[in-house]
């Protein structure tokens, strides 16, 4: 009996230059030597972030509109049969340059981060995925880097695994704000506390450990990974690890952080003049150590993701217009670049389907 080849599928968010571009789907079948990408929803401007529900039949993206203030949040129906997308609803993001979306663990709520305006919004997901705007919160403040931190810049909104909290990383104010999330309230978000990172760090993206007790936060402007404990809404520092080698000179721009499915490794991409992916491994003590730094295989690795089985990592290199596949050693977590690579204009986000 012949085994069915495994195909890994990802939704790909992009920056667009023409109406024929938009949201893409990437399919990777290693046993058949196939790596293919195609546009499945065009006519949308800069859908730079995209995600789906666990069933894979509803997709959410945004329009990061360049020329005018404002942005949009778009919900889409996804056909499981042919993977095509059709628009269900569209609402303003109630801020400028939306850049990040998050689904609550129960998949009944959606949040969006508005980078330029330093705000974020929450929506209720209704029948047929119609969105209802519930709340927009505007951050205030600044930090030490006047070129980039003269105003708030919300870069991500991440639900805790239990759905009780929403963590909001603000690059402009050097803070991670913890909001209580009450799903039954008309306005579900209330500020619990705000954790101040090292001035000039520029917090960008964060992930939770599988048990929800640790946070891994990537600091964009200093190319540092901060590891915190998280308990009842409170953040406490545990470890701080540089993502560049000693003596490195050049522009910094740490971007994405991901945890391997087995929880053994943390991966972080660094743009700027580095264009690398850093690998960190968990020791028996519970601390993490830097074990590898490897070229992202292109320029500006804004995003990357791992396959659900942890065997491969795909790097989306925005400036070199390509997605490069790495093989992951499941024992050590180390990466080896493969020959698989596919061209795509300005890939900005990879969302894993069919977990």
Topology:
Elements: E1 8-14, E2 22-29, E3 34-42, E4 50-52, E5 58-63, E6 72-78, E7 85-92, E8 98-103, E9 109-114, E10 119-125, E11 131-138, E12 154-159, E13 165-170, E14 175-181, E15 189-196, E16 203-208, E17 214-219, E18 224-231, E19 234-242, E20 254-259, E21 265-270, E22 276-282, E23 288-295, E24 301-306, E25 312-317, E26 322-328, E27 335-343, E28 347-352
Describe this structure in words.
The chain has 355 residues and is mainly beta. It contains no helices and 28 strands. A four-stranded antiparallel sheet has the order 3-2-1-28, with no helix packed on it. Strand 6 and strand 7 form a beta hairpin. The protein is globular, with a radius of gyration of 19 Å.
Give a short summary of the structure.
This protein has strands at residues 8-14, 22-29, 34-42, 50-52, 58-63, 72-78, 85-92, 98-103, 109-114, 119-125, 131-138, 154-159, 165-170, 175-181, 189-196, 203-208, 214-219, 224-231, 234-242, 254-259, 265-270, 276-282, 288-295, 301-306, 312-317, 322-328, 335-343, 347-352.
Strand-pairing-aware structural class: mainly beta
Order of helices and strands: EEEEEEEEEEEEEEEEEEEEEEEEEEEE
The percent range for strand residues is over 45%
Basic shape? globular
Distance between the termini: 24 Å
Alpha plus pi helix count: 0
Q: Estimate the helix proportion, in percent.
A: under 10%
- The low-confidence parts are none
Gyration radius over CA = 19 Å
Largest sheet: 4 strands, antiparallel
Taking all residues together, what is the mean pLDDT? 96
Strand order in the sheet with the most strands: 3-2-1-28
